[in-house]
Amino acid sequence: MSSTKIICCIIICVFLHSTEGRNSKVSRLYSRKRFHETQSIKTIKTKYGDTYNCVDFYDQPAFKHPLLKNHKFYPEMRPKLLPNITIARNDMEKSVFYTLENGGCPRGMVPIRRLSEKDRSRETMFSKTHIRDNFTNGPIAPPGTHFAIVQTKSSPSPPNYYGVGGCFSVWNPQVKENQYSAAQLTIQNGPDSLQVGWMVNPTMYKNNLTHMFIHTNAGESHCYNTYCSAFIIVRSDFPPDVAIMDTSKSGEKPIGVDFFIHRDPTYGTWWLLTGKDLVPIGFWPDNVFRTLNKFGTYISCGGETYSPPDQPGGYPPMGSGEYSVGVFERSASVIHFETVDDKLKVIDVDGTEKFMDTNKYSVHDVGIRSKSGHTLFFGGYGG
């Protein structure tokens, strides 16, 4: 065989081999793409009418944040260091969250509530009521937002807080359209803040059930739950806007749920923990914050309501719908109102004061009890 023919054969073989390799690679990429497309169309509809899309962990809304483009996060992430948080709650029965059926989403995927553009617009509207300006004696929020809370006192040199938590009695106050009634924990430093708690908001959730909620103020991000370019969910069966199955009834032993936000010093991430075993639900990376990336300088706990200023009946019921009479069976309450110091030690919040901006609601700061830690009651009829 001539040398020319040999060279031609070699070229043809190399071409066929490279083409086969490219086709194989394209085929693998196409198969992977088809796999994710197939997986992403899975939806979960709860018996309460909530619908969640299962999306790939890396496709959740948080990763649209420009500062998270080159992240190294992964679905199995959990806190490396956890404080010794109190979870024995003798004064309350345990509430049961409605986790998603059949284990929730497939492995490597997370549940994101399905929202229309109108739904997103509603969330944006309500989110603006949670934007806190700098304050000296209490939170300054848009008109129509009201508080009955226990907060740390203002100081030129406030302590550094690396977490906040508590066990809330869960109630189901009935509110009107465009209103909400919430019980919340807040940790804040400057304009950045994180909130977690329970809320009744028929306009946003499309029902009158009590839902868990989180709210994020981080730089330019002001948003609820998982439609937020800041909060990264890691649980496949537990979205942070899930409905709470059981709520307290007046005259009976209250039903409670634990919420905790804690900064893991290993990576600087703020973790959300909840449920009877305080399981990690997700986290906020430190680089999405401007002022809350290291620690908080203010924490608070209690009730919050909102009603449009021009709407009649502008004070929705708060908590149990009764004033804070200091009785667990009748008033909304928080026990083990705690924080975390720089040594990962969980301590009762101290140096607090009450804040109310209307006499429609009340708050009673009991202080530190031997069994229930820092305890408080809040609520009101509204009107």
Automatic annotation (TrEMBL):
<dbReference type="InterPro" id="IPR004314">
    <property type="entry name" value="Neprosin"/>
</dbReference>
<feature type="signal peptide">
    <location>
        <begin position="1"/>
        <end position="21"/>
    </location>
</feature>
<dbReference type="Pfam" id="PF14365">
    <property type="entry name" value="Neprosin_AP"/>
</dbReference>
<feature type="domain" description="Neprosin PEP catalytic">
    <location>
        <begin position="140"/>
        <end position="383"/>
    </location>
</feature>
<dbReference type="InterPro" id="IPR025521">
    <property type="entry name" value="Neprosin_propep"/>
</dbReference>
<dbReference type="Pfam" id="PF03080">
    <property type="entry name" value="Neprosin"/>
</dbReference>
<keyword id="KW-0732">Signal</keyword>
<dbReference type="InterPro" id="IPR053168">
    <property type="entry name" value="Glutamic_endopeptidase"/>
</dbReference>
<protein>
    <recommendedName>
        <fullName>Neprosin PEP catalytic domain-containing protein</fullName>
    </recommendedName>
</protein>
